[in-house]
Design a protein that fits this description.
By secondary structure, the protein is mainly alpha-helical. Helices cover 83% and strands 0% of the residues.
């Protein structure tokens, strides 16, 4: 009996040690991932809101490479994938034309990969960003655009982050794009008073300006 008890105690200690090692490993990995994501966010904000239009495409091209390196380095983590998708999408917006469609397809695949890992990551940002592609990209036969799919994804993103500036702004933009401008007003008003995001002051200020402009357009 004593031998059995000793074996059971030893097995329990080994199991606890394994759990502790796993938790330590996850904690050790979390900080580098968070740092990499924060750096991508800051770089994107500077390019999107503080860089002259004539320079954005070239700078986004460089940032795409950096984002892909981050998502590759932290394979299995959805956060860098979300930001890689956002940056590729932003490059598509700057580039335009057939090259933009190819980049949009690339971003779509990246968002879908992140969603498969965890759709709730970054308050549902992958759902939100994928929805934007669906309502901005042309439909068949030119592209994969699908406004019905966009609406479903945007509602899922709003359910995850109902007070957030991005889900409210993009749902409003979607409503305007689908001829329902009057319904967009409360979402734009909510976007304008959305809680500040830590470390995202530049993006928040830029998005509020976009919300103001769209609200003025709808009311005008």
């Amino acid at each position: 009996m004593k031998r059995l008890a000793f074996r059971a105690l030893r097995a329990l200690r080994l199991a606890l040690a394994a759990c502790a090692a796993a938790l330590f490993s996850q904690a050790a990995l979390a900080a580098p991932v968070d740092d990499a994501v924060a750096e991508l966010q800051r770089d994107w904000e500077v390019i999107r809101y503080q860089t002259p239009v004539s320079e954005r495409e070239k700078r986004f091209e460089a940032l795409v490479t950096k984002a892909h390196q981050a998502s590759t380095s932290f394979g299995g983590r959805p956060e860098p994938l979300v930001w890689e998708g956002i940056i590729v999408s932003s490059l598509a917006g700057e580039k335009g034309g057939l090259g933009a469609l190819s980049l949009a397809k690339q971003a779509k695949a990246i968002y879908e990969q992140a969603i498969r890992i965890d759709p709730k990551t970054l308050d549902g940002s992958a759902l939100n960003s994928l929805a934007v592609l669906y309502y901005k990209v042309p439909g068949w036969p030119l592209g994969f655009g699908d406004k019905d799919k966009a609406g479903v994804l945007l509602q899922q993103a709003l359910a995850l982050n109902p007070q957030g500036i991005d889900p409210n702004y993009f749902y409003a933009e979607y409503l305007v794009e689908t001829g329902k401008g009057a319904e967009a007003v409360p979402y734009l008003e909510k976007a304008l008073v959305a809680p500040a995001r830590p470390g995202r002051a530049v993006a928040d200020a830029g998005r509020r300006e976009e919300a103001k402009a769209l609200l003025a357009k709808v009311k005008g």
